Amino acid sequence: MTGPDAPLAPILETAGLTKRFPGVLALDEVAFSLRPGEAHALVGENGAGKSTLIKVLTGVYRPDAGSLLFQGAPLRPATPLDAQRAGISTIYQEVNLVPLMSVARNLYLGREPKNRLGLIDFGRMHAEAERTLREYGVSVDVRAPLRTLGLGAQQMVALARAVDVDARVVIMDEPTSSLEPREVETLFGVIGRLRERGIAIVYVSHRLDELYRVCDRVTVLRDGRVVHTGALAELPRLRLVALMLGREVEQVRREGLTRFSGERTASADEPVLVAEDLRVRHLVDGVTLRIRPGEIVGLGGLLGAGRTETAKAIAGALPLDGGRVSVAGVPLRRRSTAAAIRGGISLLPEDRKAEGIVPGLSVRDNIALAALPRLSRFGLVSERRVDRVVATFMERLRIKAAGPHQPVGELSGGNQQKVLLARWLALHPKVLLLDEPTRGVDVGAKAEVQRLIDELAADGLGVLLISSDLEELIEGSERVVVLKDGAVVGELVGEDVTEDALLAAIADAAGPDGTAPVPAAPGGEAGSG
Amino acid sequence: MARTPVTAAAVDVSRGGAAPAGASGAERISALAQRHGALVVLVAVVLVTSLSFDTFFTGYNLNRLAVNAAFLAIVALGMTFVIITGGIDLSVGSVFALGGVLAAWASQYGTLPALLVPVAAAGAIGLANGLLVARTRLAPFIVTLASMLGARGLMLAVSGEGNETYLVPQGSAFLELAQGGLFGIGYPVYLTLALFGLGGLLLRRTGFGQSVYAVGGNEDAAALMGVRVARTKLTVYLMSGLLAGFAGALNAAYLGSGVTILGFAMELDAIAAVVIGGTLLTGGLGYVSGSLVGVLLLKVIQNVINLIGSLSSSYQQVVSGLFLIAVVVAQTYLSRRRRIG
């Protein structure tokens, strides 16, 4: 296996790679270099530019400036197919094959072995498919439709196909996000064999354990820039997390950081929300949360740690495989968003555009949307009551709009967020789940939304706050529950809620035993492969 | 936070996660039912009808039935390809009628023009459908709805608002092509079988056929795997147009004239036959042989109702409709079962 410092010419190299989107510099003079046979981790938080970089490498986007050298020659792939033909293959998070077609046909689509008459030679195709797949630890009936395979096996078929088309570079985007531990092991074995053949791997994952197990080198992106590149083994976990989040952690020490509060501290109030042992396959692994009225509980963790999923599970938007949710002592029996809303749980989703506002509708209609059943009698909406509710919230949340009839699409991000907040508040919830409430909101509006959250809590709402903005999380929350791989790995209470403590809790891989579902590498000192 | 793993895992959850080593028993049975269900029903219907009516299982009646089915079958063949790509072609009925009128008109100049003119016109319409669907990514439903109206208009224009009926000259080879036969079986039946044989070969044994399945099964994935998606779509709509035009010409020869009221709602019969034959309306799965069975089933039901006599032929549509619903419900049920099992 190639060591991290082998003096090999890079197989793929970018210099000054820049990609601009309206209002955003997604890639800012990125220099990235990949050596043959290495596994290179590409990490960064949401919006750091990882996926943009991958899309430029694979021909989905074209860069605005900069160069891309592949095997020493300039490459400008115009389509994913171009990149693939050149030798850069991508394994996507979601398997990108045709589920209804047989395994063998998927493997050989577009390059089927033909007989003398020019017809597909199925005998040869099936035999070759079986042989190829065995190398990847997959022994299945290659005539069966692909979808009869487990996701792990499907992922292997995708990988086999990617490599079989003469790939020199294989980009893996979160390849293990839906694999069972056993399948993860097989994948790692295959990665090892690919590297022996000199194939370079770009490995994108939020699971630090995996990165330290599989990768030699790492490139950290933040805000479109490369902030670090080098051998992974020499980079302590804490430092890696700090680099990703853009924090200074030289002074961070471990002691007393992941302290479990155990039984909740003495408080007069009964919790308004109790979520016990929530389980959603692959995503949430036994999360328990209690929120008292007037309390803001933060949910910390890296991207993919299961924060959004936990919120969605509580709000009935994700089917639960196990666990209970009760609001003010009343258990939610039916698991649906409607039941959760009736029970008093409101979720402000992360993706405003896709899951929240209806841009073409007016401010008034957007606010009234969810509350219409409450505002109508015998199925008829009382316009007067709607007007009153809308006016109340527009004033209370200080929504800046030309009037209640302005389309929401014309408002600023901050005001759109307030409209959404108003929609849920109009339902008089007892618990408010806020997923990234200030993302994409300008600084002034951000402070205002934050103040609003504080006021709402003061009014007695239980608030669950998810935020990638550490300051917001720390200053906003009385308590922060830290998630990793879908499980609670720590809880910070009161004075312990500090940036250093939070970073340490996030980076702390060892954690309490048995909480990490993924086979954990021993501590932060995992060697390079 | 990552949005995609949610969907990825959701798929996994619904599948029950654990990887079966191969096709399970239930999977195999439901696949068989999907593929051969219509054939089983067809055999059963034929058996029962043969026992009930002496006049059914006679060479004369069967040949008439087969020739009658041939025209719809040829249209359904093209439709099968279109539906497997996940598309739909509503224009085939109009193109069929246009082809018939053009063929009857051109037959005065000889057999070759009588075949070439309608096929060329139908090909042009199919090509236009294909270009619009493939290049502009408009919904096939809308594109072919437009060309359905357009082709019908053209047909009316050619036939002088439908007032003018062109007759195929008596004794011409063109007439013989559709009315003649060999060993007591009409030429259209042989032609249809040959076309289905070629179609089956094309679909199952060539790279083009694989791309048809891939485009219908997962268009984005197909594009990433190097399938020429646009070209594949263009080709299937072109084929559908050509076949519909040819079927129309053949039908004109069979009837001896270009009948302007034919082909009305034929696209719906073709779609019904294809779906009854086990092809998924959502694309990605289907068989040309199934479509042939579907056509036969529709025609046998029609024949049976004619034989009963006391039933108005209108009921044929009712029975076909009920049958279609039964098939679609069964398909949905089977595929849901498969996803769970």
UniProtKB/TrEMBL annotation, chain A:
What's the chief localization of this chain?
A: membrane
Q: Does the keyword Nucleotide-binding apply?
A: yes
What PROSITE patterns does this protein's entry cite? ABC_TRANSPORTER_1 (PS00211), ABC_TRANSPORTER_2 (PS50893)
Which compartments is it annotated to reside in? Cell membrane
Q: Which part of the chain is the ABC transporter domain? A: 12-248, 252-510
Q: Which membrane topology term applies here?
A: Peripheral membrane protein
Q: What is this protein called?
A: Monosaccharide ABC transporter ATP-binding protein (CUT2 family)
The organism encoding this protein is Allonocardiopsis opalescens
TrEMBL record, chain B:
Q: Name one GO cellular component term.
A: plasma membrane
Q: Where in the cell is it found?
A: Cell membrane
According to its UniProt record, where is this protein mainly located? membrane
Key word Methyltransferase present: no
Going by the UniProt record, its keywords in alphabetical order are: Cell membrane, Membrane, Transmembrane, Transmembrane helix
Domain of life, per UniProt, equals Bacteria
Q: Which Pfam families match?
A: BPD_transp_2
- GO MF, any single term: transmembrane transporter activity
Q: Where are the transmembrane segments?
A: 38-59, 65-83, 115-134, 141-160, 180-203, 234-255
Membrane topology of the entry: Multi-pass membrane protein
Q: Which InterPro entries match?
A: ABC_transp_permease
Q: Establish whether keyword Electron transport is in the entry.
A: no
PANTHER family attached to this UniProt entry: ABC TRANSPORTER PERMEASE PROTEIN YPHD-RELATED-RELATED, INNER MEMBRANE ABC TRANSPORTER PERMEASE PROTEIN YJFF
- What is this protein called in UniProt? Monosaccharide ABC transporter membrane protein (CUT2 family)
